[in-house]
């Protein structure tokens, strides 16, 4: 058993609250253990210049952490400039969502996906992707109802989960304490069918074997399946 009482193959408690913000076309509060992220979708009736007059739409993301989402206050990036980590994560969120959406069905619109971390305890990027997919699905549902969209652009269900090796043991869904001690750190972004969108894997100390990677992959598939079921229940009841 882990310090928080979980089995090695167990994800943290998950809660996804839909329609969390009043004005956004789609929004959720995504809670993964003690990690809490507000994911919202805003629709803009224009596209970047490279898509002008193509009939295609675009999805882009922004990611930020509130000053006291961490143990010590982090200065606002609006005052200090966005950090490389934030750029890397928001690009991951954007391209992950674009991979599961038919952009030709969006019209010339940009879907802005904002992921704001209220509280961080590990897994903020995976929680952001999992919550952002639900927020985007809610936005599509709203626009279909309003007949702004004529077909559902969503091609696949998307979720993300972390894995890692801590003191020689492979674990699913690392919290902050586990992540800070990890010998191997991995993030799996996958569809509900188990198809790969992106995998980020790093040996923090020593190179690791394919056998260890396979163990992490198997745990990730289990976690993605559980997250996908939760996402579906939220959408059915939203």
Automatic annotation (TrEMBL):
It catalyses: tRNA(n+1) + phosphate = tRNA(n) + a ribonucleoside 5'-diphosphate. InterPro entries: ExoRNase_PH_dom1 (IPR001247), ExoRNase_PH_dom2 (IPR015847), ExoRNase_PH_dom2_sf (IPR036345), PNPase/RNase_PH_dom_sf (IPR027408), Ribosomal_Su5_D2-typ_SF (IPR020568), RNase_PH (IPR050080), RNase_PH_bac-type (IPR002381), RNase_PH_CS (IPR018336). SUPFAM superfamilies: Ribonuclease PH domain 2-like (SSF55666), Ribosomal protein S5 domain 2-like (SSF54211). The keyword Signal does not apply. The keyword Manganese does not apply. Pfam families: RNase_PH, RNase_PH_C. HAMAP family: RNase_PH. This is Ribonuclease PH. It comes from Thermodesulfatator indicus (strain DSM 15286 / JCM 11887 / CIR29812). The gene is rph.
């Amino acid at each position: 058993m882990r310090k928080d009482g979980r089995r090695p193959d167990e994800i943290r408690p998950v809660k996804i609250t839909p329609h969390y913000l009043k004005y956004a076309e789609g929004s959720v509060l995504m809670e993964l253990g003690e990690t809490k992220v507000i994911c919202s979708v805003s629709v803009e009736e224009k596209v970047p210049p490279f898509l002008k007059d193509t009939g295609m739409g675009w999805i882009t993301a922004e990611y930020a952490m509130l000053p006291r989402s961490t143990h010590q206050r982090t200065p606002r990036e609006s005052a200090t400039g966005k950090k490389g980590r934030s750029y890397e994560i928001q690009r991951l969120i954007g391209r992950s969502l674009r991979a599961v959406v038919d952009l030709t069905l969006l019209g010339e619109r940009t879907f802005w996906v904002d992921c704001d971390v209220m509280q961080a305890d590990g897994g903020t990027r995976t929680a952001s992707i999992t919550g952002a997919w639900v927020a985007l699905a809610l936005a599509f549902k709203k626009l279909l109802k309003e007949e702004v969209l004529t077909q559902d652009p969503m091609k696949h269900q998307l979720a993300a989960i972390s894995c890692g090796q801590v003191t020689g043991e492979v674990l699913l869904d690392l919290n902050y304490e586990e992540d800070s001690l990890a010998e191997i750190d991995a993030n799996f972004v996958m569809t509900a069918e188990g198809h790969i969108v992106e995998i980020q894997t790093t040996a923090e100390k020593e190179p690791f074997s394919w056998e260890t990677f396979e163990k992490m992959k198997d745990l990730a598939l289990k976690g993605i399946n559980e997250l996908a079921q939760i996402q579906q229940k939220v959408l059915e009841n939203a």
